[in-house]
Specification:
266 residues; alpha/beta; Nitrilase/N-carbamoyl-D-aminoacid amidohydrolase; six-stranded mixed beta sheet; 7 helices; globular; C-N_Hydrolase_sf; C-N_Hydrolase
Length: 266
């Protein structure tokens, strides 16, 4: 299976419309891939909080339209990263869009864990409530977004729902890049799954981005890693290795669920 992670540069001097057209062109250039992935909030920038409201769009807005057509033109499964979605009742969400090779909507995912510690995304956007998996030919994809990467419980629920490949678009800051690679490897090892983590390049509202999109196999080995600048990271991987890994080292079978809370010290 061939995946292409489009590590786009997101700069303030490029309009959203221009970047949308550029993203569609980059997707079309990946014809021949099986799966293409864009980063988190690439229309606005993950830290451009003041733009979330002004650039928010309905689920089936202009980005949906452009990405559906690009997926169909390229004939690829497309994880189109995420957009600031404005729901009908007015709530904003950080929402990922996924499309089939015919351009049909395959799924959407509202980010569950919002970053900001009581400011920024954490107060401007609503929280999603439902983990999402999508069945592709040859593998089941589990979807998460950026800050979700720090919460292993979400990934366990995705694995329980059949996920074998974990796809994580992000707008991860450069100052915590070591966490990005560490957590991507950890999620791969503990879940015995592939991790495809696609970040952004450039600077979002003064926050330099980490880049370094990464693909990790079920044993924690890095198959490919991008640099800091705009780049398309393309990698071949074998989804069948997930079942083989879980059979050879069946750690997931030894999970102990429903533990009682620890006793308080006397």
């Amino acid at each position: 299976m061939r995946a292409s992670l489009i590590q786009m540069r997101v700069d303030e001097d490029e309009s959203v419309d221009s970047r949308r057209r550029r993203a569609a062109s980059l997707v079309r250039d990946q014809a021949g891939a099986d799966l293409v992935v864009l980063p988190e909030l690439w229309t606005t920038g993950a830290f451009a909080y003041e733009r979330f409201g002004t650039e928010a769009e309905p689920l089936q807005g202009p980005t949906h339209e452009a990405m559906a057509k690009a997926a169909a033109d390229a004939g690829v499964w497309l994880h189109a990263g995420s957009i600031p979605e404005r729901a009908p009742e007015g709530t904003l969400y950080n929402t990922s869009l996924l499309f089939s090779p015919s351009g049909e909507p395959a799924a959407s995912y509202r980010k569950i864990h919002r970053f900001g510690f009581d400011k920024g995304e954490a107060v401007l956007m609503g929280a999603g409530t439902e983990p999402v998996t999508v069945r592709l030919p040859g593998t089941t994809v589990g979807v998460a977004t950026c800050y979700d990467l720090r919460f292993p419980e979400l990934f366990r629920s995705l694995v329980d729902a059949g996920a074998e490949t974990l796809v994580i678009p992000a707008g991860w800051p450069e100052r915590r890049r070591s966490h990005w690679t560490l957590l991507a490897k950890a999620r791969a090892v503990e879940n015995q799954a592939y991790v495809l983590a696609c970040g952004t390049a450039g600077t979002h509202a003064g926050v330099p981005q980490a880049g370094h999109s990464i693909v990790v196999d079920p044993w924690g080995e890095v198959l490919a890693e991008a640099g800091a600048e705009e780049e398309i990271l393309t990698v071949e991987f074998d989804p069948a290795r997930v079942a083989t890994t879980r059979e050879q080292f069946p750690a997931l079978k030894d999970r102990v669920l429903g533990l009682a809370p620890p006793r308080r010290p006397l």
